[in-house]
Amino acid sequence: MTQAQVDRFFEVLADPTRRQVVQLLGEGPQRAGQLASATGSSSPAMSRHLRILLEAGLVADERVPDDARVRLFRLNPEPVVAVQAWLDQVQAHWREQLGAFKRHVENS
């Protein structure tokens, strides 16, 4: 994952409503109206949030076979997994640095 992708991920999730949408979609696919109701957002505001999440790749949408007007939104786990891998690398680096510092202090 590039630094720009990591930056975009955190930028998109800086908004509390979008974080709530991601949490709701973690429970399963939902329609925009359901998400708007659950978050207390207006339909136009939810549309904007979903567009941003779609553009960032955090959310995917699909048409319902019986009704082409209905779109279901679902969480796309790939960006979350990629950011988790990046965070694991950061954590490993700091764990190594702190271990080296501890050894230095203990040997002094």
From TrEMBL:
It comes from the Bacteria. One of its GO terms (molecular function) is DNA binding. SMART domains: HTH_ARSR (SM00418). Pfam families: HTH_5. InterPro entries: ArsR-like_HTH, HTH_ArsR_DNA-bd_dom, HTH_MetalResp_TranReg, WH-like_DNA-bd_sf, WH_DNA-bd_sf. Keywords: DNA-binding, Transcription, Transcription regulation. CDD domains: HTH_ARSR (cd00090). Residues 1-98 form the HTH arsR-type domain. PANTHER family: TRANSCRIPTIONAL REGULATOR, ARSR FAMILY, TRANSCRIPTIONAL REPRESSOR SDPR. This is ArsR family transcriptional regulator. It comes from Kribbella antibiotica.
